[in-house]
Amino acid sequence: AQKVTQAQTEISVVEKEDVTLDCVYETRDTTYYLFWYKQPPSGELVFLIRRNSFDEQNEISGRYSWNFQKSTSSFNFTITASQVVDSAVYFCALKRAQAGTALIFGKGTTLSVSS
Amino acid sequence: DVKVTQSSRYLVKRTGEKVFLECVQDMDHENMFWYRQDPGLGLRLIYFSYDVKMKEKGDIPEGYSVSREKKERFSLILESASTNQTSMYLCASSSDSGDRETQYFGPGTRLLVL
């Protein structure tokens, strides 16, 4: 069975704080994909990153970084020096390798950044 | 840029009405998906389609049907809307080539059934 767990329902930070959003997944597949999406108040899911199961290299994009560890089945997302515009719901998702299969989402973490 | 559009951002319908939610993508994607999003439950897959006229049930297909007559358009149909179908509906598409794993989402339709 495939499952994604985002244990943090809500996180509140003050601007410029660093914050890490946790994601733990379950799968028996050897090849799979992991994603992070951002959903601002407007509602649209914005794609942030895709990580392949065979590539454990961490990634940094500006203030965003992702830590993928297969040993602990985790794919955590860190925002450095958070800003008010980072306030959103963040979803972690898992996908099997077969084409056309759907994403399996975690329940999301609501991040509130205050000034 | 990938563009997925949905026919309405907000919709109010009455119980028992037939409701059509339309989704159009302009990237020639083979796969299209319908999800619903509810507080505390995250996103759940209703139906998806991997080709014209093809459809597969997702996790929660009851009370819904879909139609895909053209590659770019995927419609979600509520045959007889009920109050428990009040939700946010999100459409997504993905390709079978290139970056075939990433799904791109539309802006969503917030449906209220009274």
Oligomer: heterodimer
SSE pattern of chain B: EEEEEEEEEEE
Poorly predicted runs of chain A:
none
CATH class group of chain A: Mainly Beta
Give helix % range of chain B: under 10%
Q: How much of the sequence of chain A is in beta strands?
A: over 45%
Class computed from helices, strands and strand pairing of chain B: mainly beta
Overall geometric form of chain B: globular
Secondary-structure element pattern of chain A, one letter each? EEEEEEEEEEEE
Can you tell me the overall shape of chain A?
globular
Q: CATH superfamily name of chain A?
A: Immunoglobulins
- Tell me the number of strands of chain B: 11
Q: Mean pLDDT of chain B, rounded to whole units? A: 92
Number of strands of chain A: 12
Describe the structure.
Chain A is mainly β and 115 residues long. Chain A has a single domain (3-114), classed as Sandwich (Immunoglobulin-like). Chain A has no helices and twelve strands. In chain A, a hairpin with a 2-residue loop joins strand 7 (59-61) and strand 8 (64-69). In chain A, strands 2, 5, 6, 10, 11 and 12 form a six-stranded mixed beta sheet that branches. Chain B is mostly beta strands. Chain B contains no helices and eleven strands. Chain B has strands spanning 4-6, 10-13, 19-25, 31-38, 42-49, 56-57, 65-70, 73-78, 87-94, 104-105, 109-113. In chain B, the strands form two sheets. In chain B, strands 2, 4, 5, 6, 9, 10 and 11 form a seven-stranded mixed beta sheet that branches. Chain B has a four-stranded antiparallel beta sheet with strand order 1-3-8-7, with no helix packed on it. Classes of the chains: A mainly beta (115), B mainly beta (114).
